[in-house]
């Protein structure tokens, strides 16, 4: 149930009832304080101004019309106009109870399936032959949380891992592979070292560089052996990356790989088309598109090269082709890109060309869900002590080691196997959550201590709340017998805390919708943190199993059970695992 939308519709209806027709959308948001009700309308201020009516008077008329509407009255106990023109909406207890009961009985927890769109999501996208480092973490996990959320809402999602598997660097790598093959060792267990050695040799040894360049040409011409070596490099590299994905619990598989090389054959045709239609022009041997919206320092339109003098294509040309492909071949309704903020201008320019050429129609959105950098505690880019990049595999190992230490101190009674599993869930969960819980558009400070804390907006805190509820329900099953099949008739409120918890539980759907729209999992983190905190408050102040009245025990257990399900489903949409006990 999307309460926000439902209420907005009713306010819209109330406006029609008082003969005020507006095409301005009405916005309703959860109230920030209990005295403001459950939801608040703040559109009357602007609307009053627009039609020359005192906003408070208008708010009062709308509130009145709302409460005259029998449909709204089933949902609302009260609508109250307050200065300077807000309308405070108070939901009816019976309505909340009814809906909470329905959510508790529903395997989707009351969340409606959306009209399915086909959404293509480009994420992770590391470069081949380099090991994944912390720089790839953000795209990988924010993208994956977004994908999981969209799928939960009922959309069809195509994951695309747009790996960097093409370019001149393959010449030097193949030249090195040739040597390695002659020595009979191409396992490439140390891919990073292999890459560095190739680069060094390329820079230092002119003979080698010559050979490397010759291999680039051969590879591009489709030479069978070069292709085979190239395949080998891509395979080895992606097999290693898959280990990171698996450990992270990221839902990417080898089938989702559509690297840059995939679009290669489409590039000549695209540049020809751009030239033929006058979108691109030739500047000597170079094909360029001039963009009026981008000006250089001299105030002239900036040019984007789509084909180099030597006939080579660029990263931008590939992104033009891939947007076209995602619409024309995959029939996407919406296309999302989880890429570093530093590539924003690149994408905007590529898409401007895409739009001008009409490759993707306006109604299909191309969205750059950008994110900032990962910084250390001193505000510098997150690096090893020696200033190198931190390997992702190493970071994950450290997370689990740290979690292991924490858990063995906190729960020494756990059996070794259980401890291991728990450390994995908590360590990986903490790293993921720390990133997901920040607004992705800003840089983010990586700090082991806060992310692994059991207090505050962290994975362990929410995982712990889940485990606590599971344990409570286990106990209840022993003393109370099985929980009722259906909760209808079970729920009732005896305190404000219970009521507030129920309202919060009903806001799960609007939270999912917000994450899906903005591609911002931090909205879900914030919601889960608030829910877990409310639950803590409720649990501390309201006896559940020790209450004398059976009906009260049952009602509270029902709330606990639904809270547990919403918390764990919420964590699942973030790609974070939920322990049975902690
Ligand atoms: N491989 C690129 C990088 O590491 C990211 C690719 C993102 N996707 C895209 N369609 N450009 O910077």
TrEMBL record:
Class of the enzyme per the UniProt entry, highest EC level: ligase
Major subcellular site: cytoplasm
Motif ('HIGH' region): 126-136
UniProt cross-references to Pfam families, sorted A to Z: Arg_tRNA_synt_N (PF03485), DALR_1 (PF05746), tRNA-synt_1d (PF00750)
Residue spans crossing the bilayer: none
InterPro entries for the chain: aa-tRNA-synth_I_CS, Arg-tRNA-ligase, Arg-tRNA-synth_N, Arg-tRNA-synth_N_sf, ArgRS_core, DALR_anticod-bd, Rossmann-like_a/b/a_fold, tRNAsynth_Ia_anticodon-bd
Gene Ontology molecular function, alphabetical: arginine-tRNA ligase activity
Entry's EC annotation: 6.1.1.19
Residue ranges of domain DALR anticodon binding in the record: 462-582
Subcellular location: Cytoplasm
Catalytic activity, reaction form: tRNA(Arg) + L-arginine + ATP = L-arginyl-tRNA(Arg) + AMP + diphosphate
Alphabetical keyword list: Aminoacyl-tRNA synthetase, ATP-binding, Cytoplasm, Ligase, Nucleotide-binding, Protein biosynthesis
Residue stretches making up the Arginyl tRNA synthetase N-terminal domain: 1-91
HAMAP family for this protein: Arg_tRNA_synth
UniProt cross-references to PANTHER family, sorted A to Z: ARGININE--TRNA LIGASE, CYTOPLASMIC, ARGINYL-TRNA SYNTHETASE
Summary of subunit composition and partner proteins: Monomer.
Family: Belongs to the class-I aminoacyl-tRNA synthetase family.
UniProt name for this protein: Arginine--tRNA ligase
Species, as recorded: Tatumella terrea
Gene: argS
